[in-house]
Amino acid sequence: MTGAAQVRWGIIGTANIARAVFLPGLRQAGGDAAAVAGRQASRAEQFARDNGIGRGVAGYQALIDDPDIDALYIPLPNSLHAEWTIRALEAGKPVLCEKPLCGTLPDTERTLKAARQTGTLLWEAFAFPFHTQLTQLRQLIADGAIGELMEIKSNFHFSVTRPDNIRYSRDLQGGALLDVGCYPIRLAAELFAAAHESAWATASWGGQGVDVDIWGVLGYPAGHRLLLSCGFGRSYDAFTTLEGTAGQIHVTNPFHPGPGDSYTVRAGRDEPRRYPAAPEELSFTALTRHINAVLRGEEEPRRLAVDTALPVAQGLHDLAEAAEQIR
Question: Is 107 in the same domain as 152?
Answer without folding.
Answer: no
